[in-house]
Design a protein that fits this description.
The protein is an alpha/beta fold. It has a single domain, classed as Ribonuclease Z/Hydroxyacylglutathione hydrolase-like (Metallo-beta-lactamase, Chain A), CATH 3.60.15. It is built from five helices and 17 strands. It has a seven-stranded mixed beta sheet. Strand 6 and strand 7 form a beta hairpin. It is globular and about 50 Å long.
Length: 275
């Protein structure tokens, strides 16, 4: 299996672009998967410069309904056989982020509608439960809030212009691949909490361990105590390799690297990894 990071907040190679977003291409024996599409065509440009053939994509997984993970779908290369797109039903809800003034909101949801996709909307598969894409390849959602320190994000809301409520991010789904040495887990933002997400995946696969975790973890603005507890839990889970991306935040990433050592890989857009 090979993992190619096509879009991330950081880039460290000549000619590779960065943006606030995430897109990862997974080359697997039985299925090639594009996990998220960033917010623009950056993932497509980087794929060309990395010699990654998006024509090999068998399916697209959209982790949740935010612009920086779904926006780039409309830039996917045109093809007679457009791949199936898996997205949860609640991802199409209106989504907002509370601005710094504490009073106004910014829209952060999907910047296109199904009608904007034309005939391609027939390739969109709405997932409401866990889904098996192929043997050993699963989409898992409905992550429960269990840990004491991981709660719904205080600045994210859903609803409409007149009435909003906290967004519990029921639409977030993770990709879980059963590898030879354990589970390979991919997460877009881990809004229900990275520890809640990993533990939920382990509950779905009793007796398995986590070989590789590739995830945006939404730790860029959490308290030092929250970050420390997260890293301690990740260490206790004895994950072979952790690849923090996107909304994890550079300060959290460097702290993970300090405490986890070589088990934390500081990769970014333009990097590839063979498992």
């Amino acid at each position: 299996m090979k993992i190619h990071i096509l879009a991330d907040n950081r880039a460290a190679k000549r000619g590779i672009l960065a943006e606030h977003g995430l897109s990862v291409f997974i080359e697997h024996d039985s299925m090639n998967i594009l996990f998220d599409t960033g917010q623009s065509d950056v993932y497509r440009i980087n794929a060309e410069r990395m010699a990654v053939d998006l024509g090999k994509v068998d399916c697209i997984v959209l982790s949740h309904g935010h612009y920086d993970h779904c926006g780039g779908l409309i830039h996917f290369p045109a093809s007679d056989e457009f791949p199936e797109v898996y997205i949860r039903k609640d991802a199409f809800n209106s989504k907002y982020a509370l601005n710094q003034d504490g009073e106004t909101y910014s829209e952060v949801g999907i910047p296109w509608s199904l009608d904007d996709l034309g005939t391609l909307k027939d390739n969109v598969i709405i997932t409401e439960r866990n889904v098996s894409l192929a043997p050993g390849i699963n989409l898992i959602g409905e992550v429960p809030y269990v840990t004491s320190f991981e709660r719904p994000h205080p600045l994210l809301y859903t609803g409409d212009a007149l009435s909003k409520s906290p967004d519990t991010m029921k639409d977030e789904q993770m990709l879980v691949i059963a590898g030879n040495e354990g589970l390979i887990i991919l997460l877009g933002c881990s809004h229900p909490g990275i520890i809640n997400c990993v533990n939920h995946a382990l509950d779905m696969f009793p007796g398995k361990n986590v070989e590789t975790l590739v995830a945006g973890m939404h730790l860029d603005k959490v308290s030092p105590q929250h970050l420390n507890m997260t890293i301690r839990h990740l260490l206790d889970l004895d994950i072979k390799r952790v690849i923090p991306l996107h909304c994890t935040g550079i300060l959290a990433i460097t702290e993970m690297r300090r405490l986890m050592g070589d088990r934390c890989l500081m990769l970014c857009a333009g990097d590839s990894l063979e498992l």
